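Final report, Chapter 2: Outcomes

The project's central promise was a pipeline that accepts a single protein chain and returns its three-dimensional structure in a standardized token representation, suitable for archiving and comparison. That pipeline is now operational. To close this chapter, we reproduce one record exactly as it appears in the project archive, with the input sequence first and the structure output second.
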Amino acid sequence: MRRIHMMKEKLSVRGASPDAEVSPFVIFHTHGSFSREDLHEKVEKMENQGRIIIFSGKTEGLSAEEAGWNSSFSMQTRHFHSELELYFLMEGERYYFVDQNTYHLVPHTGILIGRNRIHKTSVCPENPAHRRFLLEYSPNPYDMLLKGLHYPDFEGFGSEFAGPVCFEEDEWERVCLLITELKEKMTAGEARSSVVLKGMELLDFYAICARRRKMENSGKPQGLVPGKETERIHQVIDEIAQYLQQHCSESIRLDDLSARFYISRSRMTYMFKQITGFTVVEYLSFVRVRKAEGLLCETDLSITEIAGETGFGNVTYFERVFRTATGLAPLQYRKKNRNA
């Protein structure tokens, strides 16, 4: 796209030249330093889990990985991060929980996850084998590039275009072409600017398709339409997550919660952990902390008032949980983010 290519001149960011080299293609991407024995052990572990890394590449601001699983696989841990995540399902089926909704993904589907959004994929029992292509975009340089194309900033883009897109056949062909071109650039070790802009072209095309689907599906409910038993339990967990988000300022007991949704406490807590990666208590704390972050930045409420508004009640408990989650005391967080 011409408008993408015109942005190369702007791609001079702190700490890296636009033409810095990209990490070459490797069979899998590692963080830190590993001995040859460690790497063999890592490969063996992935093979035992039925995981095959097809492609992995990384440059500053963008990482990409294509992987397949030939057996059942569910992410075991809670997951959220500061990057935008763009996930394309190439083959198979997956359930994808994001914040408070579960989506049933099928081939030729993509989903964008905004930064710091809770998300977790889980197995579709009827079709456990799958293959996906995953990209992670960092604020530097993509905040600047998004604004240059008249999108919202990095945070706003993740909010506006979050959710799944089911591509038409010609759109999917374009997605696959862009993925192939990105992989080729990374494998060849092309200049960083070339790789970053190809990643931007893919993100831009996703946003165009997302806008089309939003216009076509205006007024339709998001998330699952429950059918199979598997989807019915996902739907119940979605409703519980939505209830926790809407009532996080209240005192919530597990027994009352399970009774409200006509599910046993043991099954509720087990399935909630399986689908979201959080226990119910952990999820509620996360939602409360996120609400507190907003109140700290957008209001002049005191710490005591915010502790009450978010359901923590006790200021000491609120400060301890908030510091554990963010690394900052509430007043430090307010000062840092208001200045920013």
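Archive annotation: The mean pLDDT is 81.
This record, like all others produced under the grant, will remain available to the consortium after the project formally closes.
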